Amino acid sequence: GQGVDEPLSATGFKQADAAGLFLSNVKFTHVFSSDLLRAKQTAAAILGKNKFCRDLEIKYDTRLRERKYGVAEGRPLADLKAMAKDAGEQCPSFTPSGGETLDEVRERAKDFFEFLCQLAVELEQKEHGKPSAPGRNSGTSGQHFVFPWTNHCSEVEPSSEGSGSSMILDANILVVSHGAYMRNWIGYFVSGLSCTLPANLTKSQLSSVSPNTGVSHFIIKLENRNLLKPEITCVCLNQDSHL
Q1: 166-224 per-position pLDDT tens digit
Q2: Taking the domains of the chain in order of start, what are their residue ranges?
Q3: 69 known ligand binder
Q4: Is the model more confident about 158 or about 98?
Q5: N or C: lower Cβ tally within 10 Å for the chain?
Q6: Where are the alpha helices (DSSP H) in 74-143?
Q7: What keywords appear on the UniProt entry (predicted)?
Q8: Topology (CATH) of 10-66+101-124+169-239
Q9: Is the full-model pTM beyond 0.85?
Q10: Is 54 assigned to a binding site?
Q11: Is 68 marked within a binding site?
Q12: Which helix (H) or strand (E) segment is 234 a member of?
């Protein structure tokens, strides 16, 4: 939750370093992280291993915090399950006293995603306004980014020679957050914005919480700078081959 702001364990630091090595060839344009210590340390570890953007500023945002669990914070998961059972509810949708509802968490995720979309549009407008810069429609704007996805990917990315694939994007944004929060965000993508999912993704995978440092990759297209109808494609979900 939010109330227990503990640092990463020794295992957590190893996992963050492994994620950093996995993403070391990816050139990020922006990095956002929850302001909780475990997420801050994860983001710093990932950037510390990066070959291109080690000195990129990490921006901390309270909207990326884990779900607030109220009276259940700092207690074992078994206690939360027992509370839910006593209330006659299922654990994932149960809201302990003083905690956030799933709708409240999703609203935070929605607000932050809309902020990211606005950021991307402003970047594209700024680039488009430069005399020497070709527009998006020319197919040559933006930057190339190399991703490490291999056989666990969907087929939405064009492959290039070698170990990864390359795409032209206006922004490539790393977001470091938390398991329950990200599950709600992905739920918003799927139910609210009709996100396209990999063909081999099962319902249980879609509803599961990401492992620590699990990587999910989404491509967002905003045709004609339309913030109301983002086209979202999930390349991979909760990918953990680096662990």
Answers
A1: 667 889 999 999 999 999 999 999 999 999 999 989 988 999 999 999 999 999 999 88
A2: 10-66+101-124+169-239
A3: yes
A4: 98
A5: C
A6: 77-86, 102-128
A7: Hydrolase
A8: Rossmann fold (3.40.50)
A9: yes
A10: no
A11: yes
A12: strand 231-239
